[in-house]
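Bug report (template v2)

What were you trying to do?
Predict the complex of my protein with zinc ion.

What happened?
Run completed; filing so the output is reviewed.

Input:
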Amino acid sequence: MFKAAIAIVGVLAFSIWTTASDSRATVRFFDVGQGDAALVDDGHGTQILIDGGPDRAVLRGLGKAMPRFDRRIELVILSHPHLDHYGGLVDVIARYDVGTVLVNQAGDGPYERLVVEADSHSRLVTAAGQRVGIHGGTVEILEPTARQRRRYENANDASVVVRVTLHGRSFLFPGDAEEAEERRLLGRPGLDTEVLKVPHHGSRTSSTDEFIKETSPTWCIVSSGTGNTYGHPNPDTVRRLGASGCRVVRTDRHGTVTATISSSGISFSTER
Ligand SMILES: [Zn+2]
């Protein structure tokens, strides 16, 4: 039995007991077609799902990734209420024992169903500064502040931005942030990252030169679907990311991308 303590500083604190066996920490960028879904597993029984992709495709990824006999996902974070990020979460909540759900704002339409489902759990509104302790690291919310949440016009630019550190390695998840939110983030401590989940599926309106320069990623993971109608990722954006020195890995070409983390480094494996 391992005791994994989770505390969201300033909001709530709770702890859980888990029977999961000790294994290595991983971050998986699931191939969910056109959308985002990533699972952080600290290797000590705590899993955190950041977005759920457009549909049930996320269940395939979770089925392979979750440790045997572990049906509990301690925390689900929804970056913003667009279908390609929340669509699969309704199924996740129905099939897994989900602890806490973090959302950034109220929405309408089908998104409300998720909110209703999530209300039977512990649903919280995200706020910059929230921090969750996991084995070997932290999960920290950088954006949005309450003021920014009220003022957004483009839901993409109110995306929850999550920074994950595990064994001294860093991952940045900027949701579908576009230029305006990227600009807000510039100068923020902790923006520098080893692995960047490329914002907004590698769109033309994201990954500005300034943002790439400040995040200075070694690895750039693009989550997008083959032949999607948006043209994601934009070829110029991919070129810009590559020219900055980061290695671009794409779920549309390589399938689910798994980063395995240890104190000596990060190793990547892909489905294809
Ligand atoms: Zn999206």
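What did the reviewer find?
The chain has nine helices and 17 strands. Residues 36, 82, 84-85, 176, 201 surround zinc ion (CB under 6 Å).
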